[in-house]
Design goal:
single chain, 85 residues, alpha+beta, three-stranded antiparallel beta sheet, 3 helices
Length: 85
């Protein structure tokens, strides 16, 4: 299973853990599984599944990224989406 980079990173705030820049499907999945403030809800489950599917090559990275952004919005941790240099 190879990591799949996002077209641009997603900036989130994880409370006492600070800010995190998530740049790939693997980073998103790791963050969802180990650092997410609320591990329930449809957005969380969808993002987890879609990031895993992107890593397996069954889902586009763009769709996995969108699912991750929606889960971050729902959890109240989305700070922004930095523009690439």
């Amino acid at each position: 299973m190879n990591d799949k980079s996002f077209s641009s990173p997603v900036l989130i705030s994880l409370g006492s853990m600070g800010l995190r820049l998530v740049s790939s499907a693997w980073e998103a999945l790791e963050c969802l599984k180990n650092q997410w403030p609320q591990q329930d809800g449809i957005e969380y489950r969808r993002a987890t599944r879609m990031c895993r599917d992107a890593l397996e090559g069954w889902m586009s990275t763009a769709k996995a990224r969108r699912a991750f952004v929606l889960a971050a919005q729902r959890a109240g941790v989305l700070i922004g989406e930095p523009t690439p240099k």
